């Protein structure tokens, strides 16, 4: 059977989009190409993680107080490296780095964007061969061009994102990428080493049957969340169910399933950690942008995730995200309507 080679690659797709806007500078396309390259390099290492001595603790502890695996560091350096050497990015913020990194060279100081990323999310799953991911968020800088970027460029609310995406290193490797023009998914075709458009114009179903939450924390959740989870378990055919509980423990994988099939993902605050575990700037915001652009929604239980004005690079937030109607039902619990 002849392989269909008419499917657009990521580069072809972004170039095609660019052709529709002759005034665009191409910086965003170039940035995406850089990210795609880093993702391919990380993918190669993730695939052989069980084989080589890259697996295991690197012996250091990251700024969140968690053990750093060697692959986290490798991924962080790859993403930072391509962005630094590219022409579109003035600086980055990363889960693995204490502070923002301002590239501060002539080209970077004239670049349009800053990028925030979690280089390898769900890294607790590396050792057991379960999907992990990279999440990224792109902002147009607000500081003066020609000068080094500043903290204000990074601490913008999520509603100012110009693009966001994630890469899943799973049964196949995928890059899902959103701009205000829509959400598109590309699957890595290993035979040509390119991300190829496999999921054009992704729309999140308004309703689904999946709910994803860590049940182990159930008794630490606030009452409205517990009542909603209880309702999920009681769904019948008549009330849109039955629901299925699915929780990978890699947010990218859980959010991706629910984006494609319809569902809701929750990481609520707990009594121990009222702000939950997930980070606003490079986990919640990019996923919120992608899911909203596909027709879903995302909140922290009180307000829209993307309206939160951040004050700190590593700040955490509770996260509820997914299909529109499921989020509305949850909201009814959280606002006391049910
Ligand atoms: P990480 O950034 O340290 O990998 O943590 C984030 C991950 C998410 O991918 C996932 O949804 C969550 O942690 C799972 O946490 P828990 O095991 O507490 O349910
Ligand atoms: Mg993470």
UniProtKB/TrEMBL annotation:
Pathway(s) annotated for this protein in UniProt: Carbohydrate biosynthesis
SUPFAM superfamilies in the cross-refs: Carbohydrate phosphatase (SSF56655)
Residues reported to bind substrate: 214, 247, 277
Residue sites binding Mg(2+) 2 per the record: 118, 121, 283
Subcellular location: Cytoplasm
EC number: 3.1.3.11
Homology family: Belongs to the FBPase class 1 family.
Protein name, UniProt field: Fructose-1,6-bisphosphatase class 1
Organism encoding this protein: Sediminibacterium ginsengisoli
Gene: fbp
């Amino acid at each position: 059977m002849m392989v269909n080679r008419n499917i657009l690659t990521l580069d072809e797709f972004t170039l095609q989009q660019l052709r529709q806007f002759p005034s665009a500078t191409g910086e965003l396309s170039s940035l995406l190409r850089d990210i795609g390259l880093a993702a391919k390099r990380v993918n190669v290492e993730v695939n052989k993680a069980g084989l080589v001595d890259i697996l295991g603790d690197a012996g250091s502890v990251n700024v969140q107080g968690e053990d750093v695996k060697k692959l986290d560091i490798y991924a962080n350096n790859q993403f930072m490296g391509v962005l630094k050497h590219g022409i579109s990015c003035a600086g980055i913020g990363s889960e693995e780095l204490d502070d923002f990194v301002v590239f501060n060279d002539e080209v970077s100081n004239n670049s349009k964007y800053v990028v925030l990323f979690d280089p390898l999310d769900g890294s607790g799953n590396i050792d057991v061969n379960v999907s992990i991911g990279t999440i990224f968020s792109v902002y147009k800088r607000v500081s003066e061009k020609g000068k080094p970027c500043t903290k204000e460029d990074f601490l913008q609310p999520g509603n100012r994102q110009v693009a966001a995406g994630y890469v899943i290193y799973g049964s196949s490797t995928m890059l899902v990428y959103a701009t205000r023009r829509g959400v598109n998914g590309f699957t890595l075709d290993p035979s040509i080493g390119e991300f190829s458009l496999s999921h054009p114009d992704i729309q999140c179903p308004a309703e689904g049957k999946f709910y994803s939450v860590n049940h182990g924390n159930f008794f630490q959740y606030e009452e409205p969340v517990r009542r909603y989870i209880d309702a999920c378990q009681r769904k019948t055919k008549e009330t849109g169910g039955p629901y299925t509980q699915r929780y990978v423990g890699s947010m990218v994988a859980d959010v991706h399933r629910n984006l494609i099939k319809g569902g809701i993902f929750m990481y609520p605050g707990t009594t121990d950690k009222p702000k939950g575990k997930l980070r606003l700037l490079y986990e919640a915001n990019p996923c919120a942008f992608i899911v909203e652009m596909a027709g879903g929604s995302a909140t922290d239980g009180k307000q829209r995730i993307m309206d939160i004005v951040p004050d700190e690079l590593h700040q955490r937030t509770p996260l509820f995200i997914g299909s529109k109607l499921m989020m509305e039902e949850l909201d009814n619990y959280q606002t006391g309507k049910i």
